[in-house]
Amino acid sequence: MSEHSEHKEGFIPRYVLKQMAERGNKEAEKTLIQMIKIEEKVEKEKKNTQVTNLLHSGNVAERLIYDSENTDEFKRKLIRKEGDPPVHDEVVNITYDFCGKTLDYFKNKLQRNSINNLGMDVIANVHYFNGELNNAFYFSELGQLAFGDGDGTSFKNFARSIDVVAHEMAHGITHFVNDLHYARESGALNEHFSDVIGTAVKQFVKNQTAETADWLIGDEIVGPGWRGKALRSMKAPGTAYDEDKQVAHFDDFDPTLPLEDDNGGVHYYSGIPNKAFFLTATKIGTDKAAFLWYTAWPNIHSNATFKDALGAILKSAETLVHRGELPQETVSVVKNAFEEVGVSAPVPALT
């Protein structure tokens, strides 16, 4: 796998923490400093991690929940492993359950066997770093999840949210399937796919439909000090909080945005395909739309544009419609959804 930078961001983007720090939020400022230390820790750890260790030997994924005990150590203290009864730490139990529900969704709705499709174990570290870390991560180099406890004001404990857990686990799918380069459009697609799986799993667990869901990302982890209702809205990008920078139309995409600014807008611009997914899901259903996206994912190359992704999704739609697995109108629904956000289907090459 090539070295990409998804671990450098986490569920809370750096630019969001910078916005908060500029308003005088000391905990956000502290998290920014901690993220630099986390990067250094991961760089050090991955040198001691063999790729074969990430693949694991069993055919069925097991869950292993570790307590970092407010340190930056991975796999510090194993608290609950697959099949163990609940323990005294509620965060451990919730993480165990949410990882299990996400694996169930992978298996039953996407026909995927774990994060790597080969039965890879889910290793999660809770109470990661100090007691107020405002972030959650999937470290692709280590094959591990890590969840901060949040400061309790801006953000609550990150492991207590099903869409956060599923979002981070979906980064693992992307890492193994197409390793989308974490910059500009391909990086926005990387974030977009995690939001797609995050919201699909959340709706499945909460027994919601595309019509009854709120389509908010991160609404369960924002605290009383947060200036809004969530971190992102797939239904209405740019409306989740006071300084929400997401856009919902390709007209607002800036290809010259420097990489220093959100890796070229990987979170700003993920709102564009997010809105297209929402529009598709409201026509054919969230689970069907998520399965379509997942089926197309292996045919999207690592530096793909939104147009490239649309082309792959349309091809998968044609195949799945032909097999009778998706409704007849799916191809036109997807085309219309992407046209509404300013992305038109690629012109087929002449043969």
What would you note in describing this structure?
- A hairpin with a 4-residue loop joins strand 4 (136-139) and strand 5.
- The protein is α/β, with parallel strands linked by helices and 351 residues long.
- It folds into two domains: 6-177, Elastase, domain 1, CATH 3.10.170; 184-340, Neutral Protease Domain 2 (Neutral Protease, domain 2, Orthogonal Bundle), CATH 1.10.390.10.
- Strands 2-1-3-5-4 form a five-stranded mixed beta sheet, covered by helices on one side.
- The protein is built from eleven helices and seven strands.
- The two termini are 34 Å apart.
- The protein has helices at residues 14-22, 26-46, 51-55, 90-109, 162-177, 184-205, 262-265, 271-284, 286-296, 306-322, 330-340; strands spanning 63-67, 78-81, 122-126, 136-139, 144-147, 216-217, 232-233.
- Helix 1 runs antiparallel to helix 2 (26-46), helix 8 (271-284) packs across helix 9 and helix 10 (306-322) packs antiparallel against helix 11 (330-340).
Concise account of the structure shown:
With 351 residues, this protein is of the alpha/beta class.
Question: Which key features would you list for this structure?
Answer:
351 residues; alpha/beta; Elastase, domain 1; Neutral Protease, domain 2; two-stranded antiparallel sheet; 11 helices; globular; disordered N terminus
